[in-house]
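The instructor's notes for this session suggest beginning with a concrete chain rather than abstract definitions. Hand out the sequence below and ask the class to guess, before any prediction is shown, which regions might be ordered.
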Amino acid sequence: MSRLIFGWLTWFAASLPPWLGYVLADLATSLHWLAFPGRRHAALANLAVILPRASRADRARVARRMMRSYNRMIYEFFRLPHLSRDELIAAVEVVGKEHLDNGIARGRGVIIVTTHIGNWELAGVMVAQWGYSLHAVAGVQFSRWLSGAVRDTKTELSITTISPEDGFRKIIRALEHNDPVALVVDGNLYTHGQTVEWFGRESQFPAGPGVLAQRTGALILPGYCIRLAPGRFRTVVEPAIDPAAFATTAELHQAIAAAAERMIRTNLDQWCVFRPLWNAPAGAPAAEPAGRAHRADA
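After discussion, reveal the predicted structure:
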C-alpha cells in the first residue's frame, strides 16, 4: 500500500506544471508553520545559537524561509523519478566536479559530507548521473511507512541506501570498491560523537567521516546542492579534505565540522533541520520534546 501511495504522489507531482507545483509548495508554508509547532520551535531555538544577535522577528522570517525551502524540496523529490536525464542535467549548474573525479582517481573511494541544504537528494542523483555508484547512509525517510518506497526509488535512481544499523562494514566495502559514500552530518543528536566547536558552541559531531577517512585513506569532499530559483540548482563539490594532512583525529573532525558550518551559514534560508541541536540559550524558545521533532533526512 505504501508503494502505491508513494507512486501516486510522484505521479501527481510530475503531472503539475512546475510553476503550479512551486506555488502550492510556497502556499503550504503558513500551514507548515502553524500546524507543526515542534518544528517551528526547534528551528527558532537553533537559529538563536546561529544568529544570537538577531531579533526574534528576524529569526522567525528565516525559519519560515527554511520551511518554504523544505516544502519545495518535498515537491521536487516526488517529481524527481519522472524527470529525464537531459532534464536533470539542464536544471543543475555544476561546480567542482573535478574534485570528485580526482578523488576517485586515487582508487580509495571518497566520502562526501553534506548537510540538509537546498535539495540534498538531487545532489545524490547528480553524482549517480555522472556515472558513479553512490552509497548514501540514511535512516527513516519521511515516515516509517514510506521509507521502503523511498529506498526503492533511490535504487531506481542508481543510489544504494545503507542503513545506520549496518555500521561501518558496508561503507568500508563501498570505499574498497572505489565508490563514493555520502554522509549527512547535521540533523541528529550525537550523544557519543566527537566534541568539536560548531557555531561557537561545544557540540557533539558525528565521528564517522573522520574515522572512516583515516581507516581507509579516502578523501573527504564537502558538497551540497542549493536552489538558485524554482527548478534551477547548483551542485557544489568543494576541494578535498585529506585525512593525512591532520596530526590528530580531533583536528580532522574539526575541519569537517567547519566545512559543514560554512555551507549552512552561507545558505541558511535553505537549511532544513527541524529538531533542536543544542540546549536552548537564555531567551530562546523552548523546543518541543525530542519525540515530536521532525526527522529531516528525507
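Then share the key points. Residues 2-292 form one domain. The chain has one domain: 2-292.
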